[in-house]
Specification:
By secondary structure, this protein is an alpha/beta fold. It has 9 helices and 13 strands. The chain has 2 domains: 163 residues, D-Maltodextrin-Binding Protein, domain 2; 97 residues, Periplasmic binding protein-like II (D-Maltodextrin-Binding Protein, domain 2, 3-Layer(aba) Sandwich). α1 packs antiparallel against α9 and α2 packs antiparallel against α9.
């Protein structure tokens, strides 16, 4: 409640100053084209039930009058490229990496990313064959004879490199797990909930297990382009504040909603009635 009041007060000040959304402002948001509870279905369609984080971002325009959000779906590497070029005004979910500051802005405080305004927090886990000799002790991956697969362009690729592990980048979870089953890699580092979901929906992967603890835990953000921030500096902060409020009040409800979809419904829960992007 207090967070909502603060956002409303901030908006009142901005409107009074004639700054934010005096005219409708288009806000073009790009996100990944992979099927997960965060963004359901695959390809470029935005389904009727679009996913946890799509719904979180969509609700921002309810709290920021005059903001008009449109979505596009792309491979993650292309999302980042469009953010840098200004063809997208924002992308989600982007973990903080100092080198990404050249392509867009994060909420910052004292020279660090300000997790108050994160969109979500997620972990990566290492998946291996049940009888694999690969070990993970919380700081070191051992007994790797080939490579560890990871999603192309994901931040965990750099994490693995810093651990001294050779990485094979793949385009989707199925590819990573199939390479693991075929013995072409010794493990697959993937977002924990995505890996869990892929294993659950694919009986052929029942010989694969998840090692504990997680490889890394990261905060994720709605990263905003430099051109949009330059045109709308105050509005950029209002968007992040609204997003943080929605995360606090709505994320648990939306997570429960989509977990039911994935546990009880079809593999692609939102695709019954595609919506226009």
């Amino acid at each position: 409640m207090l967070a909502s009041v603060r956002i409303a007060f901030t908006l009142l000040l901005l409107f009074g100053a004639g700054i934010a959304c005096a005219e409708p402002v288009e806000f073009r948001v790009a996100y990944e084209d992979k099927d997960t509870p965060d963004h359901t279905g695959s390809g470029d369609a935005v389904p009727q039930d679009p996913g946890i984080l799509v719904e979180v971002v969509r609700q921002v325009q309810r709290q920021v009058p005059g903001l008009r959000i449109s979505f596009s779906r792309r491979p993650w590497v292309r999302c980042l490229a469009e953010l840098e070029s200004g063809d997208a005004d924002a992308v989600f979910s982007s973990s903080f990496k100092p080198e990404r500051l050249k392509i867009g802005v994060y909420p910052m405080k004292d020279g660090k990313d300000d997790r108050t305004y994160r969109i979500d927090t997620k972990s990566y886990s290492l998946f291996t064959l049940r009888d694999s000799a690969v070990i993970w002790d919380g700081s070191r991956i051992g007994n790797v004879k080939t490579e560890i697969a990871a999603m192309r362009g994901y931040a965990v690729v750099d994490d693995l490199g810093k651990m001294g592990v050779a990485v094979r980048e793949v385009n989707n979870s199925d590819s990573g797990f199939r390479m693991l089953l075929a013995g072409r890699v010794d493990g697959f580092a993937q977002l924990t909930e995505v890996g869990d979901y892929t294993l659950k929906k694919t009986p052929a992967f029942n010989g694969i297990v998840k090692l504990s603890p997680p490889l890394v835990v990261r905060d994720y953000y709605l990263q905003i382009s430099h051109p949009f921030q330059a045109r709308h500096p105050e509005l950029t902060l209002v968007i992040w504040k609204a997003l943080a409020d929605i995360r606090r009040t709505e994320l648990d409800r939306l997570t429960a909603k989509y977990m039911r979809f994935y546990e009880e419904g079809p593999a692609e829960p939102g695709l019954q009635t595609p919506a226009t992007k």
